[in-house]
Specification:
heterodimer, A: alpha+beta, 4-stranded antiparallel β-sheet, two-stranded antiparallel ribbon, 11 helices, rod-shaped, B: mainly alpha, two-stranded antiparallel sheet, 7 helices, 6 strands
Chain lengths: 455, 296
């Protein structure tokens, strides 16, 4: 190769090392960018034109991302499971808080209520004892009302999260479709950052509802729900809609074609929210309603067998519940009774000092009136169910989180940026640049020597 | 070779700091609150066990209160019955004095007045009320057991119901005494008996006095029998209370085992968690310090 050819080769080599530094700089710049995959500069030796040549230097082949699609796919698969449990743990946590502390919630009101009847049995004609029974009855009714409304609030809060999740899904699918458009229309070497963004967006989307992802040769993706409803095809996205469904008013999720797909969405954050809203909380509400219904009807039935202070047959104690559903929210004291404590029917015979019915009412404390459980046991069962559901979701979430962490570590071990590694690369390119520059000046001096021969 | 990236180090450090901080916070809360369980999800079965024991404690406390209330009520009943017995005894003694033929009319009158005094005392005693409840009217508390028109005492106006109060899940105690069978039992109406006795003493009617004494003895027997029953109930109450106290202690122990912590264990656990957290933070700091950049 001619000396001038060598100058040309060296300048290309300097360019190549500078390009390497460029890539390193970019890696360092993005060390904290979420989803960024480490880039490497690919160099190739330019083959010699003939056997008497050593070669004609280096060329930059391009830059590529250190991506392993397997890990991305594993993340798409695992994130929904982790997110589902996380959503459940959070929303059920709200319910748990609503239940209150042991000894100061409905349990205490039930005990106070039965205590009041026991005290009435000790002094059936006492105005204080009669008033006490009414006050505790009212406190119990309020406790049930409050608990029912807190459960409804928890369901409403969860419903709000469902709506937010649907909004997030639509944002993400719109973004992914836009990315698809850019990626499909540009050479792949220029879309590395777009594909990082795409991967991050798909991971987030999968976390929310669980997806099926199909990657096409041009780098674009097709995404559908687990049940096969299309979300992103090429540059088009298909928005989901959260529509108020009757009679609850809670959001139902509709696919782009208007089909109600709420029941298909069992995965991911959204699936977790829907499960809590539509299965768990209604289950707790039913348990609470059964307890309220049983207490109200049993107390009313017994109360009606008694006689009041004036020797008249007893009326209602609570306003009779219309059914089990909604009994806790609707529990009220009978208004006539509230206005006149002498109407409390404590006696089993028309004798004012008799206490047989008050005793029986007090004994309801130990009676198996709620599906074979005593009122206290029924409340305990509700607390246990909520507690164990929360604890199960938390444990499951923690173990799923561990799996996601490990996959992310594996992914990072391939795609992550290491500052030390980049520092080493920086040194390497710097040294190579220096060596090439030295070579350049040697050739320059050689040419200088050659030119001086003619003088 | 496994590549360790800055992200890996950062994420691991963060996870470790987070999880050790969480463990420390939990341990710290347990120590400061003295409770092992803050929420049911911390340990659902222990929380349920705690709730069950709390319900049991409330029920036991309630029966314990009922025992105390029954106890004080029966003590009043007991002392009233003693008063009645003592009045009957006085009447018996006086009537026996009036049975001799050597008394002057003035002395007879004095004895008759004493007998009438005993009648008054019994009338007052039998109408005793406690916390607004007549103790001897059965369940009929709307009227006094006996009323008086002039010196004539009415017949029993209560009913024969004996009001019971539960003193445990399985036992109840009678807190009223049927004043009808008490004073109008075997010996007929005790007030009428005493009226007749006073009249017989005034008239010096010996066979009348004999008959009156006989009737009085029958009433005496029925009142002492009633007092015996009250005494038996009263003496059974301490044993019942003792049993309830034991049940409560056992429930409280179980509740405490379910809900509370052993302070020594909790404090050492907290110290351990604190050390783990400090170590995690220190390790994270060390990790971030080492970098090739420092040597360039």
């Amino acid at each position: 190769m001619s000396l001038f050819g060598m100058l040309g080769m060296t300048s290309k080599a300097l360019d190549a090392q500078r390009f390497g530094l460029d890539v390193t700089g970019n890696n360092l710049a993005n060390v904290n960018t979420p989803g960024y995959t480490k880039r490497v500069a690919d160099f190739g030796a330019v083959p010699p034109p003939d056997r008497f040549s050593a070669g004609i230097g280096v060329e930059v082949l391009g830059v590529r991302s250190m991506r392993d699609r397997l890990y991305d796919q594993r993340l798409y698969d695992e994130s929904p499971l982790e997110q589902q449990q996380s959503a459940m743990a959070e929303s059920l946590g709200l319910v748990e808080v609503a239940l209150g502390k042991p000894g100061s919630s409905v349990d205490a009101d039930l005990e106070d209520f039965f205590d009041a009847f026991a005290e009435l049995a000790e002094a059936p004609t006492s105005a204080t004892a009669r008033q006490q029974v009414l006050s505790e009855g009212e406190a119990l009714a309020r406790a049930f009302n409050g608990m029912a409304s807190r459960l409804t609030d928890a369901a409403k809060a969860t419903d709000q999260r469902v709506i937010e999740d649907v909004e997030s899904i639509n944002e993400l699918t719109t973004r992914i479709a836009a990315l698809n458009k850019s990626i499909g229309s540009s050479p792949s070497s220029q879309t590395l950052h777009l594909r990082d963004e795409q991967t991050e967006a798909i991971k987030e989307l999968s976390g929310i509802l669980g997806t099926q992802v199909l990657e096409l040769a041009d780098g674009t993706v097709q995404i559908s729900t687990r049940s096969g409803r299309p979300l992103v095809v090429g540059a088009d996205s298909y928005a989901l809609a959260a529509v108020a469904g009757m009679p609850s008013g809670y959001a139902r999720v509709q696919a782009a074609d208007g089909t109600d797909i709420t029941l298909e969405l069992t995965d991911g954050h959204l699936g977790g929210e829907l499960h809590v809203r539509d299965t768990d909380i209604p289950g707790y509400q039913a348990q609470l309603d059964e307890l309220a219904y049983a207490v109200a009807t049993e107390v009313n039935t017994l109360h009606a067998t008694g006689y009041d202070l004036n020797g008249n047959p007893g009326g209602n104690f609570f306003t009779p519940p219309t059914g089990v559903a909604g009994a806790a929210a609707a529990l009220r004291m009978d208004a006539t009774l509230m206005a006149n404590p002498s109407l409390v029917a404590a006696a089993g015979i028309p004798s004012s000092g008799d206490n047989q019915v008050a005793r029986k009412l007090a004994d309801l404390r130990d009676a198996s009136i709620v599906n074979g459980d005593t009122p206290a046991e029924a409340w305990t069962a509700l607390v246990y169910d909520v507690g164990s559901d929360v604890s199960r979701a938390e444990a499951e979430q923690a173990s799923r989180q561990e799996i996601v962490n490990q996959i992310e570590q594996l992914r990072d071990s391939v795609s992550g940026v290491s500052i030390d590694e980049e520092a080493a690369m920086m040194l390497r390119y710097q040294r190579a640049y220096e060596a090439n520059a030295r070579f350049f000046s040697v050739i320059d001096q050689t040419i200088e020597t050659l030119l001086s021969l003619k003088r | 070779m496994y590549r360790v990236t800055n992200n890996t180090i950062f994420r691991n450090s963060l996870n470790d700091i987070q999880s050790t901080a969480e463990a420390f916070a939990r341990a710290q809360q347990q120590v400061s609150s003295g409770r092992r369980i803050q929420q049911a999800s911390d340990d659902p079965s222990a929380a349920a066990a705690g709730l069950r024991e709390r319900a049991e404690i409330r029920a036991t406390d309630r029966y314990r209160d009922a025992n105390d209330s029954v106890d004080s009520r029966l003590r009043v009943t007991d002392s009233v019955l003693s008063d009645i017995i003592s009045s009957i005894t006085t009447a018996q003694t006086k009537a026996a004095q009036g049975r001799t033929t050597i008394l002057t009319p003035a002395q007879r009158e004095a004895v008759a007045l004493e007998i009438e005094g005993a009648k008054e005392a019994i009338f007052t005693a039998i109408n005793t009320s406690y916390r607004g409840i007549y103790l001897f009217a059965g369940a009929d508390t709307s009227s006094a057991p006996y009323t008086k028109a002039g010196t004539t005492v009415s017949a029993y106006q209560g009913d024969s119901t004996v009001v019971q109060v539960d003193v445990s899940r399985t036992s109840s105690a009678a807190v009223t005494v049927d004043g009808g069978s008490l004073l109008q039992g075997g010996g007929g109406n005790v007030f009428q008996t005493l009226d007749a006795l006073a009249a017989a003493v005034r008239a010096g009617n010996m066979s009348g006095i004999d008959g009156g004494l006989q009737d009085l003895q029958a009433t005496f027997d029925s009142v002492t029998a009633a007092q015996g029953k009250v005494g038996a109930t009263l003496s059974a109450l301490p044993a019942e209370k003792l049993r309830l106290d034991e049940l409560r202690r056992a429930s409280d122990t179980r509740r405490s085992q379910a809900e509370e912590i052993s302070l020594a264990e909790a404090i050492s656990e907290m110290t351990r968690a604190q050390q783990a957290q400090q170590a995690a933070i220190a390790a994270a700091g060390q990790n971030q310090k080492r970098s090739l950049m420092d040597y360039l």
